[in-house]
Amino acid sequence: MTNTGTAPLTSAKVTVTLPAGRGLGWGLGWGVPGIPDYQLNVLDVGEFRGTLSPIGNALTFENVVLNLAPGESRVMWVAVSARAGEPEGYTALTFDVGGMRSFSAPIHIKTPQLSSEFWLLPWESEVLLSRGGAVGEVGVIAVNVTGELVGKQTVEVTLPTDTRLVWGRPDRSDHLPAVITDNCTTTYPGSLSDDKQTLTFDNVELVLPDLGSQSALWVAVRAARDAPPVVTSLMFYACGKAWASGPVQVAPEAV
Question: How many CB atoms lie within 10 A of CB 226?
Answer without folding.
Answer: 8
